[in-house]
Automatic annotation (TrEMBL):
<keyword id="KW-0157">Chromophore</keyword>
<keyword id="KW-0288">FMN</keyword>
<dbReference type="InterPro" id="IPR035965">
    <property type="entry name" value="PAS-like_dom_sf"/>
</dbReference>
<keyword id="KW-0285">Flavoprotein</keyword>
<feature type="domain" description="PAS">
    <location>
        <begin position="54"/>
        <end position="99"/>
    </location>
</feature>
<dbReference type="Pfam" id="PF13426">
    <property type="entry name" value="PAS_9"/>
</dbReference>
<protein>
    <submittedName>
        <fullName>PAS domain S-box-containing protein</fullName>
    </submittedName>
</protein>
<dbReference type="InterPro" id="IPR000014">
    <property type="entry name" value="PAS"/>
</dbReference>
Length: 169
């Protein structure tokens, strides 16, 4: 179940098929902050727990982002991906939902990177790093991943959100 505050307009993330309220915050931020990196913006909203936003206002914003955005439940199963995820990986959203993001990993994915990610998520801390993933067609690619834990106003973990983009080797 995903609902961060009584001011959100959904019963659960999965039912609404939209974005977390922290992403909606982008719509209402000061113009001077819009030049900062996406991840930095969302990180500051997550830190400040600014949740009371209308989710309908960011649905298109998230869906049409060039980079991959993946939202998981607190147990790390994928609940939502944007079109950028499908473009990057070749997997449609229906193929990813309910899976753990590690389904994108393969034989050349660094064990060290996997351990770092697992440790950070278990500690409910942010993770930033690079990892080799694999597309649906088996082609490997290097991506930069930023993962944020998302907490509700009672400071309970509710989701993780990952921002990913492909980088040159």
């Amino acid at each position: 179940m995903f609902c961060l505050s009584s001011n959100t307009h959904c019963d659960s993330f999965r039912d609404f098929h939209s974005a977390t309220p922290l992403l909606a915050a982008y719509e209402f931020m000061e113009i001077s902050r819009k030049d900062a990196l996406e991840f930095e913006l969302f990180e500051s909203f997550a830190h400040d727990k600014q949740w009371a936003f209308d989710l309908n206002k960011v649905k298109r914003f998230l869906q049409d982002r060039k980079n991959s955005i993946v939202i998981t439940c607190k147990n790390q199963k994928i609940e939502w991906v944007n079109k950028g995820f499908s473009r990057m990986t070749g997997y449609e959203s229906g193929e990813a939902l309910g899976q753990f993001p590690r389904f994108l990993q393969g034989k050349e994915t660094s064990s060290e990177a996997k351990i770092k990610i697992r440790n950070k998520l278990n500690l409910q801390e942010k993770y930033s790093g690079k990892i080799i993933n694999y597309r649906k067609n088996g082609e490997k690619y290097l991506c930069k991943v930023d993962i944020l834990p998302v907490f509700d106003k009672q400071n309970s973990l509710v989701n993780f959100i990952a921002f990913e983009h492909e980088v040159e080797k």
